[in-house]
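Justification of resources, computational component.

The compute hours requested in this renewal are based largely on the per-chain cost of generating structure records like the one below. Each record pairs the submitted sequence with a full structure-token output. That output is archived, and it is also reused by downstream analysis tasks.
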Amino acid sequence: MMDLNDMLYFAEVVERGGFASAGRALGIPKSRLSRRVAELEARLGVRLLQRTTRKLSLTQVGEAYLRHCQAMRDAALAAADTVAEVQTEPRGTIRVSCPVTLAQTVLGELMPQFLQRCPLVHVEMQVTNRPVNLVEEGIDVALRVRPSLEDSGSMVVKRLDVARQILVASPELLERRLAEVSRTTPAFAAALRGYRTAVHDGDLPTAEGLVAWLGGQPQVAAAVRRGAGVKGDLDHFGAFGFLQGLLTVLRDGGHPGLLLILDEVETLQRARADSRDKALNALRQLIDEVDAGRFPGLYLLITGTPAFYDGPQGAQRLAPLAQRLATDFTTDARFDNPRAVQLRLTGFTPATLVELGMKVRDIFAADAADPARVTAVVDDRYLAELASRLTGRLGGQVGVAPRLFLKKLVGDVLDRVDQFADFDPRRDYALTVGASELTEVERNAASAADVPLELPDDPA
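The structure output for this chain reads:
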């Protein structure tokens, strides 16, 4: 096998003009260096150097071989520089796996801070409660909550923090609290009991698995479900029962109720006909159950486009659902009944778009390092200027501007004002809108703005 060190030695001997100077530079005795080069020539079966008592000279093949040796050395040095650069400033992609609860709590606060400190690092998150094989799934870092460190011969395991858990519900109190829940949704109560037992015993993997099962996640380990006395996955029939149980627990805890939002139901129109009909009927059943008082304390909000409520592929496809949602919008919009089953949402105007920006700015400023500076630099007048410029890029169509307006306002303006004391958006920020960041609707609006108008010549 070729020893790459010999190639380095050969290049150093030639560039330094002899074995003695090369040996001093490399810290190797002259005799050993001479022997290594001779062994290299013997392995190659050619003479690379012509040796005399006064100087060394390259043979023709030695000149060609030297170029490759130098390239090999330069590549090795460049590789070392790359590693050193990464060690100086972290960069690249890191894949992280962690449980759902940890991602929603601890990492939700720490990850933005980490990305701000390491802007050249791209983090790919795998949020799951199932066991993960780090090697097979290409995971660099796995965060786990465990009662004790697990020894691994091939993995580096380090304790990051210690969390104290305090159990404040006795079994007797828990059973009294769950008595009503058990009558209507025994599986939900069983899962809560199993969770309480797992936390008490320090069995955090089981506790996390039961939380995942209650949240409707598939592929929860059979041992976790078996230990709590629950079976299968949570389907939409069980979900109604669990919703009842959840409302009972919330009510028992002093909460007035729960707001449930079914967003963008117009996507049902793109489903297969059989799936769409089943979903529409399930929506009708849910509305009837709420109206019948099965879910006390539940406020149900359904959002969708006019096409879903009035079009042939939406609510109108199921007559009972259309009847329940029917609302007369032929009257003056100023006198719409806020207690009606449907509410008409009027489109954005330039004024309401600026008002939205003001509310977002004030919410952002509440947690900023210098709230007064945020509201002073990004004042109402600047918000109106930004809204006007962005709307102009979208052909003046205010109705399609809110998403991109908020994205630019928070990501390009507010974040920078908060992080850089000398940043002034009027001086330091120029609005740009790239095609890659636009939705199809926004792209069509922007394209319309770029169409030149051909006006007839003035006959005068």
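The chain is about 55% helix and 5% strand. The chain has five domains: 4-86, 92-142, 171-244, 258-335, 350-450.
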